[in-house]
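Hi Y.,

Following your request, here is the sequence exactly as I used it, all 244 residues.
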Amino acid sequence: MNIIKLHAIDSTNSFLKELARKEPLPDFTVVTTQNQTAGRGQRGNGWYSTAEGSLIFSVYKIFDHLPVIQHFKISMMVSLALIEAFQLFDIPEIKVKWPNDIMAGNKKIVGILVENNLMGEFITSSVIGIGINVSVKSFPDLPQAGSLSFSSDSVIIKEELFQSILKSLGTHLANLMNVRFEELKTLYEAHLFRKNVISVFEDPLSGKRFNAVIKGISSQGELVIETEEGLMSQVGVKELRLLF
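Below is the corresponding structure, written out as tokens. Let me know if you'd prefer a different format.
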């Protein structure tokens, strides 16, 4: 495992992607920083972090002809690896908020950003960015954000958590090509946030809100919801926002 530690950087994902363009990188190269000044999340959102309370890193993972159509296997496997690591620290009520935010109760504690490098119909490598709120005490204008330390009675040491996560990620990602999509889908759905619960959704374009129930995910990784009228829909990341 090749770990690059930086004092400060705009984005670990951007740094790692640029490094991979310049030179061949060993599989599972990791970049971590204490200060990330321009962290990125899903839908182009930023990621709030602090030097003392956050764990920020990105992983470069090489794949042997993973079909693009199965891209969501990466998000599922990363989410499940994190859940396994958090269970070692007795974090309660861990769930995955589709597509790949990790929740403790009703608070978001982890953001994940997967950026894939493609060759034709295959994914050759991915840069997987992970931001974890370990002990951040306040989140300006982010009422749904929380920290691991507020969700557990255990004392969480960042370096121990980091090593546990890297071990779990390494094991899970190394096995990704050997696990069928449907098998991963079943495991992922078992941890799906607000599954079978009436939730509020918002159309980001129109601002329209409506109630629906999360039923699972599709074979393409889309969210499957059932509306109050009993209609089933499959929606992508940019099509709806879960407000709950």
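The chain has two domains: 2-190, 198-242.

Thanks again,
Q.
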